[in-house]
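Re: the request from the purification team.
They wanted to know what the chain is likely to look like in 3D before they choose a buffer screen. I agreed to run a prediction and write the result into the notebook, where they can find it.
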Amino acid sequence: MVDNDEVIMMNNDEKYSAWQKKFELLQEKGTLSPDAEKFISDLLAEFSAVQAQNQRLKKQILQKATGDSRMSTKLRDALYE
């Protein structure tokens, strides 16, 4: 199992995987109540969704910062006509 000091040094994908494994181990042992299982499952799902949103926002910010404006092909063709 991974200790807390190791988790701090991981990137978010590694953290999610480690937490998911830890959660699965706790489920297998049967040490969690049904409410706790649902709560942890919801937290992991939310973490994953927030990470995906974070990546999309970082990509948009990078595109704006570099001036990389990519128009759709249809829009560009319409503007050039």
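For the purification team: The mean pLDDT is 86.
Please add any questions underneath this entry.
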